[in-house]
Specification:
The protein has helices spanning 2-28, 109-114, 124-133, 140-144, 149-155, and strands at residues 44-46, 52-54, 58-62, 68-77, 82-89, 99-100, 103-108, 118-120, 136-137, 160-161. It is of the alpha+beta class. Strand 1 and strand 2 form a beta hairpin.
Length: 165
């Protein structure tokens, strides 16, 4: 069908034009989101207030007792305006986030933003360390290699050893 082909060409050229414009703005001024999302917009959800939540983003959320949780966004659903996450430090109760009715593992983006999360940036090594330091460690982990010698030497004052070994 000729009209379909014409519309497809017009839309593809519009996408190229807008993505080129966004790349130019990113180089000059910066964007309120990661530049990689220009090529993979399916990895981000935008809230009604204009906040962008993307796959790979990490957020710190403080609860009323001033303890905090760190979560990493693992998937987003644009149609449902939802996300899935991995707990790095888990003091976040799942009932604090509103679930989507069609998918039990999908949470509403607005329920996350209502908790006033702070976007944080950690390397994969930093996230692994945060996860390790947030749990009770058994002394046997020093022997079986769960904690390597370098990590122990650098962070021995921060390690929470299990009191009931």
């Amino acid at each position: 069908d000729k009209s379909y082909a014409d519309k497809k060409i017009a839309l593809e050229s519009k996408v190229k034009q807008v993505s080129g414009l966004l790349r130019g703005v990113a180089k000059k001024e910066g964007l309120p989101f990661d530049q990689s999302l220009i090529d993979k917009p399916e990895n981000a959800v935008v809230s009604l207030s204009g906040q962008v939540v993307a796959v790979g983003d990490c957020y710190e959320i403080k609860n009323q007792f001033e303890s905090s949780a760190i979560i990493k966004i693992t998937a987003v659903d644009i149609k449902e305006k939802g996300f899935k996450y991995e707990s790095i430090i888990s003091n976040l109760y799942r009932n604090q986030l509103k679930r989507k009715p069609n998918d039990w593992e999908l949470f509403d983006i607005n329920s996350l933003l209502d908790l006033k999360p702070i976007k944080v940036s950690y390397s994969e090594k930093g996230l692994s360390l945060k996860k390790l330091l947030a749990q009770d460690i058994k002394y046997s982990h020093l022997i079986d290699g769960t904690i390597d010698k370098g990590t122990f030497n650098e962070h021995y004052r921060e390690i929470n050893f299990d009191k009931y070994v």
